Amino acid sequence: MKQTRTLISPEKRLIEVQFQTHLSRQAAERACALAENLNLDPEHDKRTGEQLCRTCYYMRRHVLAGQAITDTVCRFCDEEMQFNSTYTDALCLPCAKKYRLCKHCVADIEFRVRKKM
Fold this sequence. Notes:
Blueprint: H1 13-40, H2 44-49, H3 54-59, E1 70-73, E2 80-83, H4 93-99
Antiparallel strand pairs: 1-2
């Protein structure tokens, strides 16, 4: 496959470099803020109240998913669950709370390494 690109004229190059620098700087700032949130967990109470691990709460909140009513089952107790998109949880809320797990990915909610359930 051959990729085609439009040449940037000499008079527009500075504007293009400034614009792309701005976008790259913003991306780096967002990545740093995300890393800080993952490390410091400033919304700990809200996150644990929603029964989510740090990764699912801070990194996976804004995902694209299909807009369709989706039925699935809890991976622990087989209880039927319904969601308003294809972005579904793995566990029902009672199972997630009982075992202190992330309802979305089944990780320990505080990233503790477990030896038993």
